[in-house]
Amino acid sequence: MTSTTGDARPEAQPLAARTQQPLMALLIRLHLYVGLLVGPFIFVAALSGLVYALTPQLEERLYAEQLYTDGMGVPLPLARQIEVAQTHIGDTATLSAVRPAPRPGTTTRVMFKAPGLGESESRAIFVDPVSGEIRGDLLVYGTSGVLPLRTWLDQFHRSLLLGEPGRLYSELAASWLWVAALGGLALWLIRRRRAAGSTRPSGLRRWHSTLGLWLLMGLLFFSATGLTWSRWAGDNIGVARAALGMSTPSVSTALEGGEPVAAAGEHAHHGAMTMSGLQPATPALFDQVLAAAREAGIEAGKVEIVPAAASDRAWTVTEIDRRWPTQVDAVAVDPRSLRITDRIDFATFPLAAKLTRWGIDAHMGSLFGLANQLLLAVTAFGLASLVVIGYLMWWRRPAPVRRIGLRESLAGLSSRARGTVLALALLLGVCLPVLGVSLLLFLAIEALRDGLARPAPVRQSG
């Protein structure tokens, strides 16, 4: 850092010193804009995510009648349980998946597609596996069959219940969250070096910086995993992973002579469930297909059996216990011969695919159960608090002074630094389109503000 008693002429200052001041101003202004303009979206995403993380316990109580049963004894064959569910729902619905009771005291879930349901919706009939009693009939969402409470919270968290256009809100929050987190870290490091030996900052700024440092890794995690589900950035991430050979393997349901078709992938929880081509499935085959899968090494208690979508397709049996990071194996079974035609084992996944799987499950609060949920809830609450503290800092700021804006900060950088910043902004704008468009909006708002603040020219009287 340049001494205050030395030569202060611009040509005598090192390049780093001449660059640091406008770079600091650029970081401050960008951090402020993200906080003021994107902060409300981040706040809503954090609070809705906090509630979502705690829904498993709420669902345990709210849907206890559907999920659990007092019936103890030898369970009925799956075929009999499915027949009971089909009798209850009627002939207009088509069987789409079955989840056998994972342990004694729980129910079997038989899922159907029916006229009038959305593309990602299905009806789940909950059956007592011992007595065959119907325990419930609920509308569930996605290929993972999320129950109504979590469906509502999930859609609010993703899109504010506004459908596809509403997803821009969550993508905006995820796109800027990592920028705000790393920008805040950079500002803290610069200020700490400048203030070496002086007293530590007090009040709201100290709370804001300390909390941000503690939550840094969690904020980066929220941003990265949230972007994988986003509309625009998520598509780019998927293309990049495919090009690098990092895509998550999927079991193929193609039989001899059929076109290769992969089963639902890693984002099945949020994805659409297209069942328009489903063929009627014979209930007796479910017991046989499950037995074949068990012999092939599908050991998890929680599994889902999906019948073939066409006569030239295989059935699939997939482990769905997301509490354990390795129980996501799947097999494809030929319903004619009960032969295993394809399989995927988590142990053989590329490292990137494993990390993606763990990241998605951790983001949803499924990994390791309650510990994961509490960590998510604490981080989400801390993020919401960061936004509130940031607004309080802005509200209690001293009397307004002239601040250097984004454009002026860029102009003050050296040519090399300015070119680097602009190239980075362009790259990020292409990879994260919502971030790029909103950055242009920041600049437009700043230009409008400067135009309104500029004093009107004084007319001279004739």
From TrEMBL:
Species this protein is from: Stutzerimonas marianensis
Pfam families noted in UniProt: PepSY_TM
InterPro entries the UniProt entry points to: PepSY-ass_TM
Keyword Transcription regulation part of the UniProt annotation: no
Protein's UniProt name: PepSY domain-containing protein
Keyword vocabulary terms for this entry: Membrane, Transmembrane, Transmembrane helix
Transmembrane segments: 30-54, 168-190, 211-229, 374-394, 421-445
